[in-house]
Amino acid sequence: MQSKKLTCTEKVRVRFNETDPLGIVWHGHYIVYFEDGRESFGRQHGLTYLDIQKAGFTTPIVKSTCEHFLPLKYGETFNIVTTFVNSVSAKLIYKYEIFNQNNQLVCRGETIQVFLDSENNLCLYNPEFFQAWKDKMGF
C-alpha cells in the first residue's frame, strides 16, 4: 500500500541580496527557502506556526540537511516543493526539492522539528492538536 503524500509548491524569485559576487545564490539561503516552503505548506494545509503557537507549542529544528546539484542565479524563478513525511514520533519532518525555471533539480533537503510545550519540555507523544490535524489529513 502506498502511503499518503501531502505536498505544496511555492514559486519564488531569487533576489539580489541572496546572491554572492558571482551572482549565484549563497548556499545558506537554501535553508531560508526551505522555511518559505514550510510557511507555504502550513498556510495551504492548515498547520502554520501561529496554529502551533496558539496550541501552546513550539517546534524547533533539530536537524537539517541540504544537497546542492545546480546553482540558482539572480533574477531566476524557482519552485520549492515541500512534502510532509508522516512519522509515529512527535515530529514534523519535511522533505524539500527546489527546481529551477527549467524544471531541473537544484537541491534537495530535509528538516526535522520536535514539539516543545510551554515550559520547553520535549513532547514524546503527538500533541492533541497535531494528532487531530494528522487524522483530518488522513495519516
TrEMBL record:
One of its GO terms (molecular function) is fatty acyl-CoA hydrolase activity. It comes from the Bacteria. InterPro entries: 4-hydroxybenzoyl-CoA_TE, HB-CoA_thioesterase_AS, HotDog_dom_sf, YbgC/YbaW. Keywords: Hydrolase. The keyword Ribonucleoprotein does not apply. Pfam families: 4HBT_2. The keyword Zinc-finger does not apply. Belongs to the 4-hydroxybenzoyl-CoA thioesterase family. This is Acyl-CoA thioester hydrolase. It comes from Epilithonimonas xixisoli.
